[in-house]
Amino acid sequence: MIHTIKLKNIHCGSCESTIKEAVSGFENVAHVNVSIQDDMVTIQSVTSELPVMEVAKTLMDKGFQVVSIDDNAPPSRSWLDVLHFRRRRRLDKVHRQNCEHCKAAELGQEEHGRRSVSRSELSTVTFVDGDESQKFRAVYVIGDMTCAACTSTVTNVVKNEHPQVLEFGVDLLNKSGTAIIDDKRLADAIQETIRGSGYSADLVELVPVETSKGYKVSATVGGMTCASCSSAVKRAVTSLPDVEDVSIDVINGTAVFVVGSKSVISQLGEAIEDAGYEYQQVDVQELLTASTAKASRTVNLSVEGMFCQHCPDNVNRVLKGYGDVVVIDNPISLDSPFIKFTYTPDPPVVTIRSILDKIKAVSPEFKVSIVHPKSLEERAAEYKRKEQLALAYRLGFTTLVVIPTFIIGIIGMDLLPSGNSFRQYMHESMWVGSVSRLSWALFFMATPVYFYGADTFHTKAIKEIIGLWRPGVPWKVRFLMFGSMNLLMSLGTTVAYFSSIALLALAAQADGHNSEGYTTTYFDSVVFLTFFLLIGRLLDSYSKSKTSSAVSLLSKLRPETVLLVEDQNVDNDKITDKNEIHKHKFGNAVEVPFDLIEVGDFIRVTPGSACAVDGIVFEGSTYFNESSLTGESRPIERGVGAQVFAGTVNSGNSSVVVKVTATEGGSLLDSIVAVVREGQLRRAPVERVAEKLTSVFVPIVTALSVITWVIWLALGLSGALPKHYLDIEIGGWVVWSLQFSITVFVIACPCGIGLAAPTALFVGTGLAAKYGILARGGGEAFQEGSKIDIMCFDKTGTLTEGGEPQVTDQKYYANGITEDELQRIAGEMESHSSHPLGSAIKAMAQASEAPIEVYEVSEVSGKGLKAKAKRTSDGTVWEVILGNERLLAESGSTDINSEHQDTLTLWKRQGKSVIVLALKSNEEGTLRIGAMFAAADKLRDESAKVIKELHKRSIDTWMISGDNETTAKAIASQVGIPADHVIAGVLPQEKADKVTWLQKTGKALRGGQSGRAIVAMVGDGVNDAPSLVAADVGVAIGSGSDIAMSSAEFVLLNSNLNYLLVMIDISRATLNRIKLNFGWALVYNVVGIPIAAGVIYPHNNFRLGPVWASLAMALSSVSVVTSSLLLKLYRPRAAKGLQNASNPESSQ
């Protein structure tokens, strides 16, 4: 007779020995086999009388968890199991006592490098131990957690049972836990510990990690409605250790946190939840880590159609066949038909297509597809839809209650004549005391509305209050900077509801059975309050989702499918120039999903279709509409060797074949999306003012509400008010005064103040993106951009085209060296430089074939190059310098005569840049001039016009250039910059100093910070990066270097300087809209709160009831958002004549 017992925690040889020893002690046992891989114990008995249940009990006493006996699964888990988690913890302790491996792991006594037989070693995927410094991240899916207390329980039990765990944290919303360990074998032990504490746990990831200086956590934060909410979230998070930076986007409901240690990541969700908001982690990125030479790609695959236990092994075996190129992160199994792996693409051998084909070849039943993780925007949009749906359900329910409430409470109470039979019937007392039928009816209708319709306000308010009283929260915050809009809404409905309950109790105590009952309650106010609050919240949520469409629209530019072409003759390593490209013929194209494309593939872009990737044209020529990225509406011709970008549209009449250079995540489009996303998270200084105001708004409103109640109550009790003011039946002046207090709670709205800036900035960011202007600096960039006093320009590549300068003049002074040799030396030296003038020298010297060898080339920042040159025919060696006059002077050369100086002066007056080559041989003592070159860079057609327009707008213009003064002033005079506003001959770091000098000495015309001038710097090169950082507003030209772009607040994707004026127009329009929004929100509160408090009540006894106050509150925030949305209709005056980027959706 054969019996099988499936256990959970077999993982080493020690376990196997313990099991065999325990089972062999029973009579009639002939043989015991233990399979560590399958977690299975097979027992062969002599007779059928083996007490298998007793065997299972013995194994449990040894610390093993029994899953099934003879393939009969135990009963499904019930709530009673949770109560017995202590027993499972005891089993876990017993198991460690019997398992040498677990005991040694817990005590940290494992000998380094020792390998015991473990589950992970016997599975299809083998993990190999690293060195002592290697750390591993274990990620678990943890079920059955419901609240923060659950996360604390799991965290504490893991830390207590496994003190050698370096870091451990639990994410309640994502139902996950993360452990950082230095021994991967601890991963299974942690899993069992969590299970033993009463929660389900599955290890889903075990990967090696490198230590990092920081982590960037992207997450969605639900429940935020205004700046006071973001302040509450920020306070909750910054109280945690190692939180370095917090960026919160109220509009999109997203946030980015930069933390110094991984242990803090798991605490973010708990802190935010304790503050009353919902948290969902989307992504965690390590900061300051080194990138690999070849970009790897991580893919999640879903494999459907597996039908036996061998199928997962076969799939894993396919990936193992690729060797070290493919690393399996999560192996596949029948229970979890998903496999996650990382590989380094190497077309055509190692591609996602070849991997899919091999997996499909295992069985015709397999259906393999790529599983895409949701992006931050998709997660945020999903949460918004969920939030809007929840609000819609509650609004629908409340609407059903509002109708009978209106009929009974408004029509029956006020509109029908007093002699009407229905009104009299509703006024009669019923059941107890003098409680009228009307009061009972409104009570039964208001109660579900209060507890269901308004529950979202109460829940968040309670969490906010609990969060305030967590240890470590300053008393100042607890009493002077607490609460949000949710608290005000909750207080308004709560005071109305429970004061009505009190009035109901008073009426029940009164003697008046079968007579006319009391009708004074605020139950109808609870219903109408909730109704209007929900309408406002739903409209607010919907409107805000419309302001944040810039990133989602940009993301939609990329098509979902591409036309893949195959060319068996292409050898990527041999194709180095355009001439080689023409030798290859491309065949038919096959339509494939975009995610099956790799770097190095070839795709065909047909007329009218969008390019899905960044790449280089290998065959054909056509025109591309790049308006969606750069704002340039004029189609650009792209032929062989030219770059094309994802999201651009083939607007020509012919197809082109493109070699892929960047796919998803590395394209220009992805960079734009990242810049826009990060820019939207950066707040303007004006937003910080709103944040400070809203942080104290709730305490102020609460105080005003209480003061209002006290004042009216004191006036009433003192007899200062006329008797006819008291128009209620029960409760006296206490209840009568309460109406004003409730109205103050309800009408006050910090949302309008909090939304004034972020909604306008989001629309402004999207508007700028339509014109190819990326606001990397976010709100601060817009605010500073609207106040620019001085605009500084670099010369080369900014005021001039900077593309390919040409050598226009050359003079040689041969003395023992030929002109051809001098050209060769100059060309070889400039091949080590990225300066635009270097390209001109290289192009000039390309034809030279002189036998010269150049070596030991070094760059002198901002001045030129130094090197040594050797004539290979006779071994003559020269020391050589190549650069500007400053480098020549500093090198000690005295060889400049009047002829040299006259030539250089003439060239510089013509606006040309000069380059001098000087050299000396071993026999010579000083450097002598061997050659002089002049190069010209074409002035941009629009430069003069833009400078003129800036002057019209009272913006001073300056030029800061590394070129010589004569050349710089010559260019300045052509574009209209005054000669005394030219700073020339400066090094890169000196440019930054000059910008700082202008900030201190320039005239502040627009109220800059601390009364100083706001200075903008426009540049495109690496040498402009320091000055872009130093400026208040750094503007990088799109054709410039990556470093310049990363240093700038604004990036102009189109190098046309007219878009500089568009940037200023949009910045000013956005700031003006923010001011308008602020003005309206402040006026609303300044006027509305006194009216709600009853300042005009003595005049005709006009009182704003809580119901109408809630309607006004809802309309206030909606009106602010609507005002921001109207900014979408704005058209910059500078854009006239410049057709902006068409709508991204229509451009496709």
What does this structure look like?
A seven-stranded mixed β-sheet has the order 26-38-37-36-27-34-35, sandwiched between helices. The protein has a six-stranded antiparallel β-sheet with strand order 18-17-19-25-20-23, with no helix packed on it. The protein has a six-stranded antiparallel β-sheet with strand order 28-33-32-31-30-29. Among the domains are: 297-312 and 319-371, Alpha-Beta Plaits (2-Layer Sandwich), CATH 3.30.70.100; 585-663, Calcium-transporting ATPase, cytoplasmic transduction domain A (Distorted Sandwich); 773-800 and 939-1053, Rossmann fold (3-Layer(aba) Sandwich), CATH 3.40.50; 806-936, Calcium-transporting ATPase, cytoplasmic domain N. It has 40 helices and 38 strands. Residues 73-89, 105-133, 288-294, 568-584 and 1139-1148 have low confidence and may be disordered. The longest helix is centred in the middle third of the chain and has 40 residues, at 376-415. The protein is 45% helix and 19% strand. By secondary structure, the protein is an alpha+beta fold. One of its GO terms (molecular function) is ATP hydrolysis activity. The chain crosses the membrane at residues 391-411, 431-453, 487-508, 520-539, 693-715, 735-763, 1078-1097, 1109-1130. This is ARAD1D15114p. It is a multi-pass membrane protein.
